[in-house]
Amino acid sequence: MSWDLTGTYFEHCPCDLVCPCTTSSTSKPADVERCTVVLAFNVQTGQVEGLDVAGRTVVVVVDAPRLMSDGGWKVGMYVDDGATDDQFASLGAVFTGQRGGIWAAMSPLIGTVLGAERAAITYADDGRTHRLTVGDTIDMEIEDWIPPGGEEVATLTGMTLFSPILTMATSTRSRVDAFGIRMESPGQNGHAAPFSWAA
Q1: Which of 7, 37, 61, 151 sits 20 to 30 Å CA-CA off 72?
Q2: How far are the Cα atoms of 47, 101, 132 from residue 105, in angstroms, in the given order?
């Protein structure tokens, strides 16, 4: 049972500029009553048990209690419609924690799996801007944040969830209606980073 994935990711939720859930590895409560988050992963290189999964995109949609570590998450997942049956199944196993690694640590928090589907997905990193569309269910964009008077994107270091360094970002477009989970939170939190995982 071995796999490795590298690529880029970004997320968006209705918290303020810095999401307490992500930055505390789910140990601090969200700024809002329910934690609704979309996590988009663009796999640039990777394999699962020898199966090449490079070029695939996985999107995880979550609705969770304000304190995410309480568990009971409702989760849905999309994989881009270019995925073969084997790629779809293999990535599903990784992102639900069945194959160990980072996602296995989170799988006990999941209370309800809302579904897993293929969909037409567009994922783009364009400098400071990160965009995602998933069919007609998700249309979101975040922009990495440069503080007033600054010249560089603000980052958070020492993170332990998806990547050790995350950009701070805000949403410029936010429309989600996926698996019964809804969010419209323009101007709210986003983070982006490269990722590299293995198990």
Answers
A1: 7
A2: 20, 7, 26
